[in-house]
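Regression test case RT-17, inverse folding.

Input:
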């Protein structure tokens, strides 16, 4: 009898030890990736996969994002998958989940600049989601730079477009942007299937990634010519 009970205590100890080790790994990766997202806000999907494989190779990207989001929930923040429409990179972005995200990041803007932020977003929305930066008054310069740095806007060759953080924000979802058939993410830089009864949306760079021979609408099989 005594040997059995000793044995079970030993087993219990080993189990406890294993559990503690598992918990350590658990806290470690939550800490690791929380820090990563708080510092960077935007993390390329490829980099994230690489980092998981290097440090925590037993974990899947979806389970990590799910667990991180459980921790971020209390802060009204969430990691969402998005796309950088200028590079075609899929990214994960940390955004606040309140209805007016822009006003939340805007704790860094004063009232006057906040007005400019909203004007800029409106301008973009009313101009088919892109504007020439040099068409803007100089007074927009500083808010523009901040929004670009925060990945709410992209600037490529002097053209401003919506960046990955804005695309998946609550404001953008109110715009009801079309979703790309390939990546299922919202978009402003893309092409619609030319078949007028179909009109399925595709990001330009998602299409490019597919290769020209596959540029056929998955709904109606119409050829997609985007040039
Ligand atoms: Zn896409
Ligand atoms: Zn189609």
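Golden output:
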């Amino acid at each position: 009898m005594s040997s059995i009970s000793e044995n079970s205590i030993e087993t219990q100890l080993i189990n406890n030890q294993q559990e503690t080790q598992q918990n350590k790994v658990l806290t470690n990766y939550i800490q690791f990736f929380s820090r990563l997202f708080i510092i960077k806000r935007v993390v390329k999907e490829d980099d994230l996969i690489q980092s998981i494989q290097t440090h925590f190779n037993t974990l899947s990207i979806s389970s990590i994002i799910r667990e991180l989001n459980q921790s971020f929930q209390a802060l009204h923040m969430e990691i969402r998958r998005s796309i950088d429409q200028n590079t075609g990179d899929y990214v994960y972005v940390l955004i606040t989940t309140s209805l007016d995200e822009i006003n939340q990041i805007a704790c860094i803007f004063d009232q006057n600049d906040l007005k400019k932020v909203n004007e800029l977003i409106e301008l973009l929305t009313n101009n088919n989601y892109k504007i020439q930066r040099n068409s803007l008054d100089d007074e927009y310069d500083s808010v523009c730079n901040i929004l670009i740095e925060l990945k709410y806007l992209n600037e490529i060759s002097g053209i401003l477009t919506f960046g990955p953080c804005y695309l998946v924000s609550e404001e953008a979802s109110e715009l009801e942007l079309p979703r790309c058939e390939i990546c299922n993410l919202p978009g402003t830089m893309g092409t619609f299937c030319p078949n007028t009864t179909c009109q399925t949306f595709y990001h330009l760079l998602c299409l490019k990634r597919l290769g020209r021979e596959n540029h056929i609408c998955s709904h109606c099989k119409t050829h997609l010519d985007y040039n």
